[in-house]
Design brief:
heterodimer, A: 166 residues, alpha+beta, 5-stranded antiparallel β-sheet, 7 helices, B: 156 residues, mainly beta, 9-stranded antiparallel β-sheet, two-stranded antiparallel ribbon
Chain lengths: 166, 156
C-alpha cells in the first residue's frame, strides 16, 4: 500500500513537471510574437522630450527616429520608452510567460525600471554611437514596476536567460 | 480595430526610423495596393515505398516579400528615403498592420526589409509610380539579429 502511495506521489510530481513544460509547443514556432503599447505623438513633441533628457539611451534612438522629419509629422513610439525618457528611468527586459489569444508564450516583456543612477548615465555615455547606447545589458529586476504592456517577444530566447535593461 | 473583415485602404504601413529596441514608427501612406506577396514555409518532400502519399516536412520560412505601389510625386520625404534605401541596399524595419499601430488590438507583421525592386512606370494614361518589392533583409542591431515578428498592440 505504501508502495502504491509513493508511486502515485511520484506520478503527480511528474505530471506537474510535464505541465510546466507545456510552452514547449511555441518554442518551435519560428515567428516571434511581440506585444507593445504605443503612443501617438508628433516629431516636434518628441524633439521636446529628447531635449529634456538628451543623454538617455531612448533619447538617442528617438533622435535618430525624428531626424529629417517635419515638426508636424505623426510618429508612434512605445509607451514605455517615452515614459522612461520623461521619468529618467531605465527600461528593463524580463522573461515572462504571457498569453496571447489563448496561446502561452515565453516572452521578453519590456517594463519601466528604476531611476537611472550616475553609474547608468556613465555607461550610457559610452562613445560607441547611439546604437550602442540603446543596447541591453544585464541588470536586476527586483525593483521593476509593471508599466505598459511593453514589448513581448517569444519564443526563441531561452526562459532562463537573465533579465536585461537598457 | 478588433479582428474583423476590412479593406486594404483602412490598413497601415510603417517604417521604423529609430532603432528596433526603441522604435519610432512613421506611416507610409501615399501608396496604392500592398501585398505580402511571398509568405511561404519551405517544405521537404518525403516520398517512400512504405506509403503511397508524398508527405511534406517543414523546413525554414522562405524569404518574405512585400509588394506595394508607391505613387510618384507624393510625400517626397518618404520617396527619398525609399529611393536612397534601394540604391544603397539599406535595410529598414517595416510594419504591415491591419490598423493604426497606436490602436489597441491592431496587429501585423514587422520585418527588416531590403528593397529588391524599384522600377519606375511612366504610362501614358495612368499615374506614374513604382511597384516596390521588399524582401527580408539582414539587420543586426547591438549584436542582436532582427527577425520578422508578429506585432500585437496592447491596450491601456
Amino acid at each position: 500500500m505504501a508502495d502504491l502511495t509513493e508511486k502515485l506521489k511520484k506520478l503527480k510530481k511528474d505530471l506537474d513537471s510535464n505541465a510546466a513544460g507545456k510552452t514547449n509547443r511555441v518554442e518551435i514556432e519560428p515567428l516571434k510574437v511581440n506585444r507593445a503599447r504605443h503612443f501617438k505623438t508628433d516629431a516636434s513633441t518628441l524633439r521636446a522630450a529628447i531635449e529634456a533628457n538628451p543623454t538617455h539611451p531612448v533619447a538617442l534612438a528617438f533622435t535618430k527616429g525624428v531626424r529629417g522629419l517635419p515638426d508636424n509629422k505623426v510618429v508612434t513610439v512605445e509607451h514605455v520608452d517615452l515614459e522612461a525618457l520623461l521619468d529618467d528611468k531605465n527600461v528593463e527586459l524580463n522573461e515572462e510567460e504571457i498569453e496571447i489569444d489563448g496561446d502561452r508564450h515565453i516572452a521578453q516583456v519590456k517594463r519601466l525600471g528604476t531611476k537611472r543612477t550616475k553609474k547608468d548615465k556613465e555607461a550610457d555615455a559610452d562613445p560607441q554611437g547611439p546604437d550602442f547606447a540603446t543596447s541591453l545589458s544585464p541588470s536586476s529586476t527586483a525593483t521593476s514596476t509593471a508599466s505598459s504592456a511593453g514589448t513581448v517577444s517569444s519564443p526563441n530566447t531561452p526562459p532562463e536567460e537573465k533579465p536585461k535593461k537598457r | 480595430m478588433s479582428f474583423q473583415p476590412s479593406t486594404g485602404h483602412k490598413m497601415k504601413f510603417y517604417r521604423n526610423t529609430a532603432t528596433h529596441a526603441s522604435p519610432t514608427w512613421v506611416e507610409i501612406d501615399e501608396i496604392g495596393d500592398l501585398s505580402i506577396a511571398d509568405l511561404t514555409m519551405g517544405l521537404a518532400e518525403l516520398k517512400r515505398r512504405a506509403n503511397g502519399f508524398t508527405k511534406n516536412l517543414p523546413s525554414i520560412m522562405q524569404s518574405i516579400a512585400v509588394e506595394f505601389r508607391l505613387h510618384f510625386g507624393l510625400d517626397s520625404a518618404t520617396f527619398t528615403v525609399l529611393r536612397s534605401a534601394f540604391f544603397a541596399g539599406t535595410v529598414i524595419e517595416y510594419a504591415i498592420m491591419n490598423d493604426a499601430i497606436a490602436d489597441e488590438d491592431s496587429e501585423g507583421l514587422t520585418l527588416p526589409g531590403i528593397i529588391e525592386q524599384f522600377p519606375w512606370d511612366q504610362p501614358l494614361e495612368e499615374v506614374s509610380g513604382h511597384d516596390v518589392r521588399l524582401a527580408t533583409g539582414y539587420l543586426v542591431e547591438t549584436s542582436t539579429e532582427i527577425d520578422p515578428a508578429w506585432l500585437v498592440v496592447a491596450g491601456a
